[in-house]
Design goal:
- The structure holds 2 protein chains of 2 kinds.
- Chain A is α+β, with helices and mostly antiparallel strands.
- Chain A is built from 26 helices and 26 strands.
- Chain A is elongated and about 115 Å long.
- The two termini of chain A are 37 Å apart.
- By secondary structure, chain B is mainly α.
- The chains are: A alpha+beta, B mainly alpha.
- Chain B: Keywords: Membrane, Transmembrane, Transmembrane helix.
């Protein structure tokens, strides 16, 4: 069956398998077609796969469709005129949630080339080390003279090409470091492998007793395993992060002489007129030239209340249009928008963070010179003692092999893989390689308000206390509107079991609210000034019925799931908590009181936030920043470590080290605990490696170290370290 | 000892077969969707015209 797993071009010939480039070339010559990727978060079984694939295949214009259950994704090849939106709607009609993914963003990671390369080298090293070990066991158990020499020569024949192929990642890194006159972990590794191979060859040629081919190969195998683990962890994080980015398909409606056309945001130019429908996000910075509406700027500034938008007003990319269609003339597009400039500032702020050196790097800095000095000393010492170059070189090689950081090379990747896997299952994505270690040190947590602790969606306060009659009228008026307050009102009325009053001639007045006729009287729901009500401090919508006093519906921001638990757990763990928001003072104060946060800051500008975090850092605190908006990006980058929810703006997600995939905040405190135990495990692993070196190195220096002892000690330490890491899962 | 003349080449040969099989599976994208492939074998649709 496997022979038919590929299309006819493969024809089961090994040469074709060995030359995938030629095949890819042949494939790319085919006429261009639409490549569509859909994210299907709800599929989970064999029936889902076949239902989606069959459904898609039956759709006109679809050439082929393939569902990937691991990635929960469908890739579709279709005629050029089939749009992704159409496909997503079609799959929704089949009964599965579907989101369009930006194929351009995903294509970069279609196949994981580096991972495949490492896996291949790992497999070759594994094959060779097993076979050579088999031969070595025969030698250790007493093969003599000609038999031993033959075994050694066979081992050499297997080991030499394997080392040349599998050792390349280490050789390349070591060469790169040496060229810049630096030392890294790969330098002692490379030296040990090469020295082991060279002395073994020499010994074999002189029909000596010991050859270290097996040690060189197992060393390569274990270290490649560590490298591969490390790569897998990052690849998973990277592909998930890319999928998040790809979910935001950047498209805009360009108005050209009265004709609307859908274009990619990348095609927009300065001076273009762009139509933004209610519910849409501003694709560019610009000026409103037509239309009246309200803008939700919470992601950019942290304000929860919508602001009025009218012609002549400037808008920035990322703001959400709420009530009426707006035509905007673009003043800055693409990389020049304030959204992107902010993201660029973050890149500068981030360079400060890269100064953090991980535990592994610190260990390597001590380790690499130490090992070389020790080995050189052993060589010089034994040469002066025996004046025998062969013995001295043999012992120097044994010292290098024994000390080689097998456990060290595995210690960090094994632990971080286990810890990231555990956090990933809880809905957290570790993006930065040193994020876990930094998270472990956190002693102060700064939260943003809108979109982070609160969901940004308002909720009617005490819905049961309003009289029924006006609430039914308000329900009727609110039903047709997409304004967040109107939707919250409609939700609350529905939950209370009310039916909408019979209001006729409902019209939405963009920027003000909705009005209609009820029992011959005009009724209005909207802004205070428009309905004749007195504006209060709290977020409110006002209902006026002709001849009656206006009714004010007040709203509170809904808390995100797990926000209370997260804050309580962090405080219980002895961490200081802070609340910083761009929102108004009463709103922030109320939330701080509700969550029991004593330090809070309202109406904060982006610069205030990052300045405060820097001040905290200077006082000696290690700050964790949790935020989602554009106004938080500078603070996210300035903090010691940062977390942003998946619903955050792309710029904020880029700036943060960890992304919360679900809406729930409660894993944050658990993540701190996991990070602390991960760091503890890494330190333990270093200790294990040190203990093993303390025992084995004197043996090697004393010249007592046979290849058997080297192989045993090395494997034992690697396995202990890996098992220790597994305790984290 | 003569048995070694057979056993060593045989063990090397078998190991090589395993290695080649592994390289083939990696090259033909068989690890791209392990979860999906595990479910697909339960489905009779794919036996006649397997897809890549």
């Amino acid at each position: 069956m496997t022979a038919t797993m590929r299309p006819p071009s493969a024809s089961a010939c090994p040469a074709c398998v060995a030359a995938p480039a030629a095949e890819a070339l042949a494939e790319s010559a085919a006429p261009t077609e639409a490549q569509i990727a859909l994210s299907l978060p709800t599929i989970h079984c064999a029936a889902c796969i076949s239902k989606v694939e069959k459904g898609l295949a039956a759709h006109p214009g679809v050439r082929s469709a393939r569902v990937n259950l691991t990635l929960k994704r469908a890739s579709i090849e279709a005629e050029p005129d089939v749009t992704a939106q159409e496909m997503a709607e079609y799959v929704e009609s089949l009964g599965y949630e579907a989101h369009e993914l930006d194929a351009g963003t995903l294509n970069a990671t279609a196949t994981d080339k580096a991972g495949r390369d490492l896996l291949m080298r790992l497999a070759v090293a594994g094959f060779a080390s097993m076979n050579v070990m088999l031969l070595s066991v025969s030698v250790w158990s007493g093969a003599e003279a000609a038999t031993r020499d033959m075994f050694h020569w066979i081992s050499a024949a297997i080991a030499l090409p394997t080392i040349a192929f599998s050792g390349q990642p280490f050789f390349r890194n070591a060469w790169g470091a040496l060229r810049q006159a630096r030392l890294n972990m790969d330098v002692p590794i490379t030296l040990a492998i090469l020295l082991a191979v060279v002395t073994s060859l020499w010994e074999t040629a002189l029909s000596g007793e010991h050859a270290y081919f097996d040690a060189a190969l197992t060393l390569t195998f274990f270290l490649l395993a560590g490298r591969y683990l490390d790569h897998r962890t990052r690849a998973i994080a990277r592909s998930a992060a890319e999928e998040l980015t790809a979910l935001e398909v950047p498209r805009a409606l360009r108005v050209n002489g009265g004709i609307e056309e859908q274009v990619n945001v990348a095609e927009l130019a300065v001076g273009d007129r762009v139509l933004v429908r209610p519910g849409g996000r501003m694709p560019v910075d610009g000026v409103i030239i037509e239309g009246m509406s309200e803008l939700d700027r919470s992601l950019l500034t942290g304000e929860t209340l919508p602001v009025l938008a009218q012609p002549g007003q400037e808008v920035s990319a990322g703001e959400v249009n709420l009530t009426g269609p707006l035509t905007v003339q673009a003043r800055a597009v693409g990389r020049d928008t304030s959204l992107h400039q902010m993201a660029d500032l973050v890149a500068i702020a981030e360079s400060g963070r890269s100064r953090y050196t991980s535990l592994a790097d610190k260990a390597a800095k001590l380790y690499a010179p130490g090992v070389h000095i020790l080995s050189a000393l052993a060589f010089v010492g034994w040469y002066l003692y025996t004046f025998d170059l062969r013995t001295a070189l043999n012992i120097a090689a044994a010292v290098l092999i024994i000390t080689c950081p097998c456990a060290l090379g595995l210690a960090v990747p094994a632990v971080t893989t286990a810890a990231s896997g555990r956090l990933f299952r809880r809905g957290m994505l570790i993006k930065h390689e040193t994020a876990l270690e930094r998270l472990a040190e956190v002693d102060a947590v700064v939260f943003d308000k809108t979109g982070t602790l609160t969901s940004g969606a308002p909720e009617l306060e005490h819905p049961g206390t309003y009289p029924k009659q006006p609430m039914r009228v308000a329900y009727a008026l609110a039903q047709g509107s997409s304004h967040p307050l109107a939707r919250a009102l409609a939700r609350a009325a529905e939950a209370r079991g009310l039916t909408p009053a019979r209001v006729s001639e409902i019209t939405e007045v963009p920027g003000y609210g909705a009005k209609g006729m009820w029992n011959g009287q005009e009724v209005r729901l909207g802004r205070a000034s428009w309905t004749g009500a007195t504006p209060g401090a709290q977020t409110a919508a006002h209902l006026s019925i002709e001849g009656q006093a206006p009714v004010s519906f007040t709203f509170v921001d809904q808390l995100r799931d797990g926000a209370e638990e997260a804050v309580a757990a962090l405080q219980a763990a002895g961490k200081k908590t802070y609340l910083m928001s761009g929102d108004t003072t009463p709103a922030v104060e109320a939330l701080a009181k509700r969550l029991g946060i004593t330090h809070w800051m309202a109406e904060a500008l982006p610069a205030d936030k990052s300045a405060r975090i820097q001040a905290l850092t200077e006082e000696g605190a290690r700050v964790l920043m949790v935020g989602d908006g554009l106004n938080d990006t500078a603070a996210l980058a300035a903090a010691h470590v940062s977390i942003s929810p998946a619903s955050a703006l792309d710029a904020a997600r880029v700036a943060s080290d960890i992304v919360l995939l679900g809406g729930d905040l409660s894993p944050i405190s658990e993540a701190c605990d996991t990070a602390r135990s991960a760091t503890r495990r890494i330190r333990e692993n270093f200790r294990i490696a040190t203990v093993y070196n303390v025992i084995a190195v004197p043996l090697a220096v004393a010249g007592l170290c046979s290849p058997l002892i080297a192989a045993l000690a090395m494997s034992a330490s690697s396995i202990t370290v890996s098992l220790n890491a597994l305790r984290l899962r | 000892m003569n048995v070694l003349a057979y056993l060593i080449p045989i063990s090397l040969f078998l190991g090589t077969v395993g290695l080649i099989a592994f390289v083939y599976t990696v090259r033909s994208n068989q690890y791209d969707d392990p979860e999906g492939d595990a479910r697909r074998i339960l489905n009779t649709d794919y036996d006649d015209k397997p897809k890549r």
